[in-house]
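Q: Two folds, back to back.
A: First:
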Amino acid sequence: MRSVLRIVNRLLIGFFGLVLLALGGSVLAIGLGVRPPAWWIHDGRHDVLLSNAERTRWRDEGWWWPAVIAALAVLLLLALWWLVANVRRRRLADVLVDTGDGEGALLRGRALENVLAAEAARLGGVDQAHVHLTGRRGLPEARVRLLLEPHVDPGHALHLLTSEALAHARDSAGLAALPAEVRLRGVKHRAERVT
C-alpha cells in the first residue's frame, strides 16, 4: 500500500506541476507579446481568461448543474481518500517470527505492541507507554510514546527502553533489528517550592 501511495503521490505532483507550468508559461508568454497558435484558448494580451459567454454557456441546460456537482463530489472523494491514505499510518497486523524450521510463525502485531508497552511502562521513571508497530511482517518498526514522571532523566529512560524492552521484543520475535522512533514527554505537574 505504501509503494502504491508513493507512486500515486509522484504521479499527482508531476501531473499538476506540468499543468501549472504549461498554463503559467503560456500566460506569461502571451503577456510578453508572443503570438499564440490559432487553437490556443487565448487570442492575445488583452484577452480574458473566461469570457462572459464562456462562463454562462451551459448554465441554462438541465444536465449542467448535476454534472458539475457530480464531478466536484468525485473530486472531493478522491481528495479525501488521498488525504486519509497519506495521514494514516497502518498498524502491522502480523509479525513473522523465525522458528528455525524455514516456515516461520505469525505473531499478532497487537500482542507484540501490548507486551512491549507493558514492559516499557514498568521501566523506572515511565508513567505510561504506547507502542504502534508499522512496516512489513519481516521488518517491523516501532513507534513508541513514553510519558515520563517528573525529574526523570530522558536519556536514562531512553537507554532503559532500548537496552531492555526493545531488545527483549526483538530477541523474543527473532528479529534481526527492531528500529524504533521514540517520543518522550513529561507528566505535567505543579511547581515545587524550594525552602
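A: Second:
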Amino acid sequence: MSYEQTPISAYLITLNEEAHLEEVLASLAEADEIVVVDSGSTDRTLAIAEKYGARIVYQPWLGFAKQKAFAMAQCTHDWVINLDGDEVLPAEGVRTIRQAIIEHPGRCFAFHRDDYFMGASMRFAKMKYFRKAYPKSAAKWRETDFVHEHIDISLPTKILPTIIKHYGHDSTEIIAAKKNRYSTLKAQQREAKGRQFSVLRMLLIYPVMFLKLYLLHRFCLCGWRGFIKANIEAGYFFLTEAKLFEKQFKTKHNIKS
C-alpha cells in the first residue's frame, strides 16, 4: 500500500475559532475527511469550515475530553489526526503522516508544538510534544479529565520531525484568560479526586515552576517574552492551588459561593 492510499480523518472541536481556523483547515486539506464538532459558534467558524468541505456536527459542550471523544467517534476512517482550532500542521504535514504510517507500522505519532507568544515563535524554548495521529481503534480519551485532557493509546509513540504552530498562547491577554479558566477546572478536578490543599505546595509551586520553565525549559532564550510567559505559566499552578484552598475553606466554614 502506498501512503496515498491510507485514508485519514481529521477532527477538531470548535467554538468561535475564526481567528486561525482557515490556516488550520488549509493544513488539513489533504486529509480524506475533516470533521468539525462545534458547540455553538457565533462568528465565522462554520462558514470557514464549510469552505473547506468539513462535515460539521453540532454538539453542546460536554467538557474538553468528552467533546473530543465525541468528535473522534464521528470520524469515518480509523486513522485520525486531532488538532485544536488554533493548531496548524506545516506544509505537507498530512503526507508526512501517511508516509510514517507505512514506514513505522504499529505506532502512533507525536509532534512538537511551537507555542507562539506575542505574535512570534518561541522556537528557542523547549517544546512539548503531543500525540496527534493514531488509529481511533487503539485510542480512548480520559473522559474524567476536566482540563489538559489526556488520550490513552495502546501503541508506542514515534515523534516525527514535524512542528505544529500553536496560536493558543499568542498574547498576554489570551494566555492569562486561558490559565485563569484552566486553573478553575484543574482545582475542580483535584477536588473531585479527593486531593487536599497543601501548604507546602502553595508556598513552593510558583517559584519552582517559574525556575523550571525559565531555565530548564529555556524560556530565558526568548528574551522578555520568555520571562513574561514563564511568570504567567507559573501563576497558573499557583492559582490552581489557591482555588483548591478556597473551595475547601468555604466548605469547612459553610460559606456559600
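Q: And?
A: The CA atoms of residues 60 and 188 lie 21 Å apart.
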